[in-house]
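Bug #77: duplicate submission created two jobs. Keeping one. Sequence:
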Amino acid sequence: MNRKTFLYTMICLPFLSRRSAAAPSRISVYKDPTCGCCGKWAEHLRSNGFEVVIQETKDLVGYRKKYGVPESLASCHTAVVDGYAIEGHVPAREIQRLLKERPKAKGLAVPGMPMGSPGMEAAQTQAYSVLLFDGTGRSQVYQSYAAR
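Kept job's structure:
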């Protein structure tokens, strides 16, 4: 190894490694143009390190079908991150966990619009579950949140 290669390895490589490890995940959010809670959810994602790209559409059913989200898990927006579908007000920490664990699944969903979920903040909250779903429509509880 010559001196130039050695210096590059010792000085630059650690910074490049940290930079790529810290790069935010890009998430595309498909939402109705008039939905305010979807924008609040997108802000929640941004404040938790995601790069959010919003695409407004009136065809949310089409996007759910395209990304394999069962209608029984429908909410007010659909998102896609690193090959996974995210339906509804899923907390950023569960998306980060999904991306770290990489389970064999289609994605995560919080059906409906539960009060207290990210983007649906309110004084009174309700219990809700984040569901992990597969390509056949089966789902299981990934994480539960209690009412507060």
